[in-house]
Amino acid sequence: MDESQGKVTLVGAGPGDPDLLTVKAVKALRAATVVLVDDLVSEEIVALAPKGARIVHVGKRGGCKSTPQAFIERLMVMAAREGENVVRLKGGDPFIFGRGGEEVEHLREAGVTVEVVNGITAGLAAVTSLGVPLTHREHAQGVVFVTGHAQRGGEPPDWRALSEAAHQARLTLVIYMGVSGAQQIQDQLLAGLPARTPAAVIQRATMPDQREAVTTLGELAATIAREQMASPAVIVVGDVIRGVVAIRHEQPQVRAA
Q1: How many Å apart are CA 146 and CA 174, to the nearest integer?
Q2: Prediction pTM value
Q3: Which residue has the higher pLDDT, 119 or 154?
Q4: Cβ 206 vs Cβ 125: under 8 Å
Q5: What is the per-residue DSSP string for 205-229?
Q6: Of 136, 149, 153, 152, the residue nearest 176 (C-alpha)
Q7: Bridge-partner residues for 175, per DSSP?
Q8: Which DSSP letter does residue 167 get?
Q9: What is the 8-class DSSP label of residue 186?
């Protein structure tokens, strides 16, 4: 490999709050000469890049017009071959529903040096913002991160199987990109989980305009529609949500942070 080549670093920007960036992420960003920024990365985080760095916004957001993935990958390779120190700034964690795996494979095949800096994923930050854990010795023995948005032409998750596993193994389900398909997800999860199972929807977790709705699985889709919850949002299903409010005895509610 040509040592004069630049490199690419995939940096997890976390859920949006700049204070949640890792020290390593800040160091990588401050050393960048080119920054390719995802749509959901906050301006406060982008502002940490050097003044002379070239900032390129390459929006990737479900349901919105997005920059083609192939174009982003070509841009990274071209910039690295020109000797640039490229940071691919991605919301959350690059390796959790961030296409980081695809990008690393493409860069390695092109002979480009690539490094990954993890970030706090939205599912973790969202639940923590409610003051409850994802796992608990009495309520949840594990956690499953799953996307509610299937790749075009691909098979959606087997929600029935997930619901049965969650019920039997006492798992917390954290669903990314599931708001638009909430009714279908709810209907299939009810095959294995009781309708009274606690659930929550957290929109724009950790940001000043965070909103959250706490409800039950049986009322999930109705709550999302009534409270006009929208992407980016995370859905959490499981008994750990009981720590937020006594679900069985109170009406679903929404609170703006």
Answers
A1: 6
A2: 0.88
A3: 119
A4: yes
A5: TTSTT-EEEEEEGGGHHHHHHHTT-
A6: 149
A7: 146, 235
A8: H
A9: H
Instruction: Please state, in angstroms and rounded to a whole number, the distance separating the CA atoms of residues 236 and 143.
Output: 10
Task: Supply the residues annotated as catalytic.
Answer: 38, 60, 177
Sorting pLDDT into bands at 50, 70 and 90, what band is 41? very high
What is the C-alpha separation between 38 and 56, in angstroms, rounded? 9
Do residues 244 and 130 lie in contact, with contact meaning Cβ atoms separated by under 8 Å? Answer: yes
| Exposed / middle / buried, residue 18 (Cβ in 10 Å: 0-12, 13-18, 19+) | middle
Burial class (CB in 10 A: 0-12, 13-18, 19+), 137: exposed
Rg of the chain (C-alpha set): 20
For 19, the token pair is 């204070």
Range of lowest pLDDT (63-67, 181-185, 215-219): 63-67
Per-residue pLDDT band at 156 (split at 50, 70, 90): confident
Q: Which has more pLDDT, 247 or 174?
A: 174
In whole angstroms, give the CA distance from residue 17 to residue 42.
8
Give me the residues paired with residue 173 across strands: 144, 237
Are the CB atoms for 93 and 120 separated by under 8 Å?
Answer: yes
